[in-house]
Amino acid sequence: MNELTRRQREIFYFLRDNYESFAHSPTLDQLCAALGMASRGSMYKHIMALIAADLIEPFASNKQGGIRLSAKAQRDYTACEHSLPFVGKIAAGKPIEALENINYMPVPAMLKSDKPCYVLQVQGDSMVEAGIFDGDWVIIEQRSYANNGEIVVALIEKSEATLKYIEQSPGKVLLIPANANMAAMVYCPEQVEIQGVLVGQMRSYRSLLSK
Amino acid sequence: MNELTRRQREIFYFLRDNYESFAHSPTLDQLCAALGMASRGSMYKHIMALIAADLIEPFASNKQGGIRLSAKAQRDYTACEHSLPFVGKIAAGKPIEALENINYMPVPAMLKSDKPCYVLQVQGDSMVEAGIFDGDWVIIEQRSYANNGEIVVALIEKSEATLKYIEQSPGKVLLIPANANMAAMVYCPEQVEIQGVLVGQMRSYRSLLSK
DNA sequence: TATTTTTGTTCTCTTTTTGTTCTCGTTTTA
DNA sequence: TAAAACGAGAACAAAAAGAGAACAAAAATA
């Protein structure tokens, strides 16, 4: 983001902010129309500068691939300013304790995924060996499926919510704590509903001191 | 901030409050319009004074780059609830590896203190049992003293930086890892310089997936 | 399949914007 | 009263922005 001119930055932020409104990715002409320009050639020049700055994915020459943000741009410049809802607390063996007033907290882009996410506060020590302590905040990507080995928010029997490693095999779901004192639990797939997958985590040491 | 004239201070605060993000950094003319001035040349003079005071990033001569706050200005004069500087990486046994381009990352207010803070990325496993893993980000409060039991950034012999528990007694400083495989180190107070105290921590699980 | 339209790409040319440097008058401050 | 701060405005060069034409490949259409 170093050597960009103002117009280039303007166009980049426009792309970032209106990305969804272009069903997939805009053409140069569409961009011109959207930004009130008449010359495709001029727009082309700007886009090339953004590609050189690694903010837009380069597309094959003369292939109508489309203009999309680069991985770097998505990591560094999207949703940075946005906040995630702090939904409540999660403790093994209880339903998620929802808050009445949902607070939003700013979260660094790198701690979340590009899918919708929310924040929970962990209660209990079932994941200590995974470095998740009592009182930590976890960022959860809202998702109803998971890969084996991921840490998930699982709803058991529609009543208990818990944060555990998951291992799925046909007809069986294992929810595994990261704590030598606790045993893994075995369920049928019908008993377990995946509500999200862990993508980030935060801890404050201030609260420890004030205790 | 002392030797600035009143108008210069006014302009600086205006910039800080309205253009903290580089995204829409103004031109001299835009600044004039916003502040009710008519002469670009006069505004130029003020901006040059702010650059000399290291409050605004100097820009290449005659390049239309953009007016943006300097690192110093962001550190000292922007509201702390926004962003913290990501300074570099810390690995036991090495000096802090500073980055060329300091990035600022938004950090939830609860992860930091009301004193100046910065962010480091941890390398190594010396604090795993404290739930601080390789690759985690830690938020450090800039401070030259610590209480026993706190986790500190310590500079040893002016050459090695490390993140450890600290225990101080008269004539002796203990730096204690949180890893059963590593031993505590004993130093004289003169050998150890405290550079900051751990107040927050963050982890991304996305990067693990992409590995 | 043949033809038309769209789209990326490369040019050249003109206009506008911007930083920069001056000079000169006015206001504020010591 | 003198110096410092402030501001207006002219002038200039370089950079940036934009228009528009032309062309080939791709996509869409008949």
Secondary structure topology:
The structure is a homodimer of 211-residue chains.
Chain A: H1 6-17, H2 28-35, H3 40-52, H4 71-77, E1 83-91, E2 97-106, E3 117-123, E4 137-142, E5 151-156, E6 160-169, E7 172-176, E8 185-187, E9 192-204, H5 206-210
Parallel strand pairs in A: 1-3
Antiparallel strand pairs in A: 1-2, 3-4, 4-9, 5-6, 5-9, 6-7, 7-8
Chain A binds a DNA duplex (30 and 30 nucleotides) through helix 3.
Description:
The structure is a homodimer. Chain A is of the alpha+beta class. Chain A is built from five helices and nine strands; from the N terminus they run ααααβββββββββα. Chain A folds into two domains: about 5-75, Orthogonal Bundle (Arc Repressor Mutant, subunit A); about 85-210, Ribbon (Umud Fragment, subunit A). In chain A, a hairpin with a 3-residue loop joins β5 and β6. In chain A, α1 crosses α3. Chain A is elongated. The two termini of chain A are about 45 Å apart. Chain A binds a DNA duplex (30 and 30 nucleotides) through α3.
